[in-house]
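retry 2 of 3: previous attempt timed out while embedding 2-oxoglutaric acid. Reduced batch size to 1 and resubmitted. Inputs unchanged:
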Amino acid sequence: MNDDDQTDGMDLASPYSLSAEDVWHYRENGHVHLRGVCTKEEISGYRAVLKSVTAERFAGASKMSDRPEDDFSRVFMQTFNLREADERAAKFIQSPRFGKIAADLMGVDAVRIYYDKAMFKEPESRITPWHQDGPHWPLCSDHVLTMWIPLVDATIDMGPPRFASGTHKNRVIGPKGIHCDSESFFGDYIRSNRIPVVEEEIPAGDATLHSHWVVHGARANTSGRVREALGITFYADGLLIDDSACSEENQPVIDANLGNRRPGQRADHPRNQVVFVRS
Ligand SMILES: O=C(O)CCC(=O)C(=O)O
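retry 2 succeeded.
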C-alpha cells in the first residue's frame, strides 16, 4: 500500500440507513436509487484504485472507431472481479455496508458476491440495449441484485441506467442477450404495456440497486466524458445453482464466476465471499 493511499482508514463498516420507503420501493419497482451511500471522500479515494485496476486491464483496448460493429463492442468497456486484483478494491467491494444494503432490500439474512465489474461507458458509446440479467445467470431466484455505483457524477447525457419499473414481477419476459433484438423486443414491451421508465442522474456517492429480473438499459454517452461505474452483484446465501430460467441452448450454464458449480449444487464457492450475515 503506498503512502498517499487515500483509502487508508476507510473501511465502510458504518451501516447505511435504509428507510422503509427504500425497501418498499425496491420490492415494488425492482430498483431503487439510494442517496449518499458513500461520502465524496470515500468515492474519490476508491475511484483512484478502481480506475487504476481498470486502466491496466484496458491498456490494449482498441479505439472506439476501430472496434467491431457488433451489438456489444461499442456499448461499454467492462472488466470483471476487480476485488481479486487489488486488496483495496476488495475492501470497497466486500464492504459490510454494501452487503447489508443488499440483504435488507432482498429481505435475507446473508449475502454473497456473484461478481463485480467495472463498466466504463466512453464518449460516443452506444446505448446499453434493454435487457434482463436473470436469464444469463444460473441463479433462478428473486434474491439476486446488482448495486450500480458511479465513480463520477453520472449525468443523463452519460447514460446512467434506466429501469422499466415493475417488470421484475414477471421474472423472465423476453429473449436472453443484450443486443438490437433485446432492445426492440423490450422497447415494444415497455411501450405497449405503458410501463413507466425511470432514468435519473446519479451523483457520485449515490447508488442504484436493481433486481436481476427487472428490464433495464442505458442511453448512449453523448457527454464527451467517460461514465465510470462499478457494478456489484449479490445473491442470498444458500441458493443452489439453477439454470432453469436460462434459454434451453444455454443449459447447463456453468459459470466460472460461481466456481464452475453444477446445477443442483450450492452456490457457495470460496470465490463468492459471504459479505454480510445478520447477527
Ligand atoms: O451500465 C450500464 O450501462 C448497464 C448496467 C447493467 O446492465 C447492469 O449493471 O446490470
